[in-house]
Write a structure and sequence with these properties.
Elements: E1 8-16, E2 20-21, H1 28-31, H2 34-46, E3 52-56, E4 66-70, H3 72-80, E5 85-91, H4 108-113
Parallel strand pairs: 2-4, 3-5
Antiparallel strand pairs: 1-5, 3-4
């Protein structure tokens, strides 16, 4: 029987924020939303509970670069709060989707009626 490949490396790393790049930013409307403000308040009071999901990119000779897969609001909040490093899970594969996007927020009856 074959083994299952892990989606993430075993260790959580503290990565400097200047090495983490997001393909999407956080807009001004999102910065004033209740969701973002609660994430920022939670990080300020408790720290990051769920690490960011990143993927290692090819080293260009000037240091490591990490592509953000999930956690753009947490990354923005960390930068705003003056943090220098973020705890990150390192993904083994560079997925074209964020992990939270695969969660179905419809009830079975809503999905059935569609």
């Amino acid at each position: 029987m074959g083994s299952v490949k892990s989606a993430f490396e075993k260790n959580v790393l503290a990565i400097p924020l200047e090495q983490i790049f997001s393909q999407r930013g956080v807009g001004k409307q999102l910065e004033i939303s209740k969701k973002y403000l609660s994430i920022r308040a939670s990080i300020r009071e408790l720290g990051v509970i769920e690490p960011l999901a990143v993927h290692r990119e090819v080293d260009k000779g000037d240091g490591r670069i990490y592509l953000l897969l999930d956690g753009r609001m947490r990354l923005r909040a960390l930068k705003e709060l003056g943090a220098t490093h973020a705890l990150c899970l390192i993904a083994c594969d560079d997925e074209g989707f964020t992990y939270n996007r695969q969660v179905n927020r419809l009830t079975p009856i809503q999905e059935h009626r569609m």
